[in-house]
Amino acid sequence: MSDTFIIYSSTDGQTKKISNALAQQLRAAGESVSLLSLAQAQDLDWDKVAKIYIGASIRYGHFNKALMAFINRYQAELTSRPNGFFCVNLTARKANKNTPATNAYMMKFIKNSPWQPQLQAVFAGALLYSQYRWNDRIIIQLIMRITGGVTDTSQDIEYTDWDSVTQFGQQIIAH
Ligand SMILES: Cc1cc2nc3c(=O)[nH]c(=O)nc-3n(C[C@H](O)[C@H](O)[C@H](O)COP(=O)(O)O)c2cc1C
Fold first, then answer.
1. What is the pLDDT, as a whole number, of residue 1?
2. From the alpha carbon of 89, which atom of ligand 1 is closest?
3. What is the tens place of the pLDDT at every residue in 20-73?
């Protein structure tokens, strides 16, 4: 038995939520799906992996370090089956920065990664002021002020375009 694997690197839960939505969509289309955090995926039995898609969020300009370690370790396994990657960040809330060709984090990833994912997507994340520690809240608010975003910390906003997530799900199903 082999599955479609969706692996997520998520701190505040938005990448996990997107991964979960993709898993549900794939299951509804008849695929058998394993959904794992990056931590849970450290010792994968690759014989069970038919296709693999990884999602990761950005914090202070970077992915979680464990993501690049995973990619370096499993570059051959990733490349030898249908594969894809999606990046979640708040810069992508802007229409001119929400594709693999226009999102700086995705462009940098593609430039530096030894693994060149076949399918690629960028999704806007969530601005969850109510969940942030006070120091993160102040810094994120400052970034939002500089970049013309919402600075009212009493509001939480989900910017994720769920239609765009569904389109990526369709690509995975067809992959
Ligand atoms: C501490 C912190 C730092 C962040 N830094 C960035 C950043 O540098 N660039 C950006 O576009 N988004 C940044 N974000 C926004 C996150 O990428 C966004 O909230 C995303 O939904 C987080 O996904 P996750 O919940 O799966 O971790 C940051 C968020 C937090 C909380």
1. 64
2. 17
3. 999 999 999 999 999 999 999 998 999 999 999 999 999 999 999 999 999 999
pTM of the model: 0.97
Distance CA 134, CA 152 (A): 14
Q: Which residue ranges make up each domain of the chain?
A: 3-125+160-174, 128-159
Residue 59, beta-bridge partner list: 62
User: 140 CB less than 6 Å from ligand 1?
Assistant: yes
| CATH placement of domain 3-125+160-174 | 3.40.50.360
Rounded CA separation 86/98 (Å): 11
Q: Which atom of ligand 1 is nearest to the CA of 127?
A: 19
